[in-house]
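Work through this:
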Amino acid sequence: MDFWLWRLFFVAFAEILLLHGFCSSEPAPNYSFLHQATSAPPLSFYDYIIIGGGTAGCPLAATLSHNSTVLLLERGGSPYGNPNITNLSSFGSALSDLSPSSPSQRFVSEDGVINARARVLGGGSCINAGFYTRASAKYVAAVGWDSRLVNESYEWAEKVVAFEPPMKQWQTAVRDGLLQTGVSPYNGFTYDHLIGTKIGGTIFDDEGRRHTAADLLEYANPKGLTVMLHASVHKILFRTKGRNRPLAHGVIFRDAYGKKHIAYLNDGEKNEVILSAGSLGSPQLLMLSGVGPLDHLKAHNVTVVLDQPLVGQGMADNPMNAIYIPSPAPVEVSLIQVVGITPYGSYIEAASGENFAGGSTQRDFGIFSPKIGQLSTVPPKQRTPEALAKAISAMEALNPIVFNGGFILEKVRGPLSQGHLHLVNTNPNDNPSVTFNYFQHPQDLQRCVEGLRVIERVIQSRPMAPFRYDYLSLPVLLNMTASAPINLLPHHANVSTSLEQFCKDTVMTIWHYHGGCQMGRVVDFDYRVIGIDALRVIDGSTFHDSPGTNPQATVMMLGRYMGVKILTERLGN
């Protein structure tokens, strides 16, 4: 009886600590636990080693630090002090920065769609469009999460990073257009995922400053956490001798100078290595560590620890298609604020502004940037430094009115189409090969078409009248958008006659890709890697579908949620 009383006491005590945090926490960006990996000792020991300081890794590390020693390894640098990350007006600059020190690392899928992965503390929350919205109650139930802890974990993140956006002329017109076209009811401002039209949250505050997952480290116990920046993990270490199952017990990482460091887990059955490296990084690192399809690993001379053919499978990216609408009336610089959630599986969103990168020293023209890939004027294969410089110079000579306008876009729910990820080489800093198979499933294509039909009705609605030129008909707008070399796919003439062809020709990413370490296939329902001890994967690579209209809130929630569950287990047993 005494044992159970003490156990209940520890569990209750853990929840109090986890929900309210410690008064010793430090405000961002003045973290005493933030270090360059070059300062790391050759050998170190921790209770938890988390690989990836991204949207899931930061809240996970902050939570676990309250009764454990935690090492958080991030391959990129700090987001603080970088205006291309912080300022809403500079959106696009980070994505178009192709330098080795960029917070964004470009990759091109085998489908021919240009994409990006984060390389910075805070992960994708540092380079995305900032929309904050929760998963639906149906999604939470399907995954099997505890709804009470889910809500508490969302609220924990929202106190630091979520805000109500200011509604100005373009976003208001799109909202009213959605309602007039029947995307109802109107749900007002809410983080909840509800059929109809709503104003969602944003991680930009009212001064246009971005708040990222790195800010959630404010919740950390500084004495329990060590964060190493520019720490590239090359391999997870396993013990196999005399064991029925491999046991993760450490990692090898290299600093910015290429120097090797090893971190081991302290002795203790509760201590773990946790992968939170994202939907490309987590399956890639599992494979590089010997966990993956046997023949594929052997082909790259990787020593096989566990033949797991499902690592790298189930890769999916929600296809996004947009229509650009030049506007005779001024529009604000805005990212995603309003969303129309349709019952048939298409989400309608909007963005606007003369120049998303207007705050930078060099005009990059945001989503029109010759560097970024979205609605660019220079085909991807022709993007030499000389060609980019020439294109930017030509764009700077244009009348700014050309860039005054906005996008209305649709994103396909799910999606049902899936692909795979493979190693290209054994360098963890290089991108793996990934195929998403956009629109392979006919229902994804149908959802795109339905979404475009809604967009067409919104464009023609009365609230949008001040923001469109009468002489630019819908076919002209479709063909104008389709003429931009936005991907490496072949384009067809006059796609306005077939919305199906428009979907295929103009498919882009909205950076919501997921899969590769899916729950029930690679990890169990506690996110433990199946067949391996002391190793979990906690990030979007475990998802079968993208949650809500934007996954970042749910990825933050997941980091916190699993941190609470793991730490409660630790304190209660």
